[in-house]
Amino acid sequence: MQSSVLHSQPKSTVGTPAYIAPEVLSRKEYDGKIADVWSCGVTLYVMLVGAYPFEDPEDPRNFRKTIQRILSVEYSIPDYVRISKECKHLLFRIFVAEPEKRITIPEIEKHPWFVKYMPVEFTEGKERGLENEDKREESQVIEQVLAIVQEGRKHGEEPKLSEHFIGGSMDLDDTDADANLDDTESSGDFVCAL
To answer: Protein kinase domain location, by residue (predicted)?
Structure first.
């Protein structure tokens, strides 16, 4: 028996605009798992670059522009950030507008950049089925994770953070010229009724 929660086709558009996959904006049913791949790609990009991939660096609070850039898959890696070929390839495969052509989780698990520093216990455990997954020790410590991210950067310069990088509020009231200026509470979530 399938769970109606775990196996339903998502129809809502809720979340921070910077992470939303193009198909989620289409107002049609979409595969939540493949949309999550896109969102994970945004997270990886942010870890490597220090900025959201689809924000306009000249106008980061303009969420209409962000949405347009998501729909047209308009992003680039700044020249001052060095990212390995394998990592760039993974991002290229993640940021694909057509969900059926986007890389899947099983494909990511086999991608050269993903497996490069994969702990042996993970790959061996996966083959055995991980019967005692909750009993196994943590196989990666934070230092290892940071080293993996640094390798993805390929020893490039640290990102130069400015006002158009992460840290600013994502208040969607800015997208509406008629927004109520007295409205000071906002979750930062983008909600679109279907």
So the answer is: 1-114
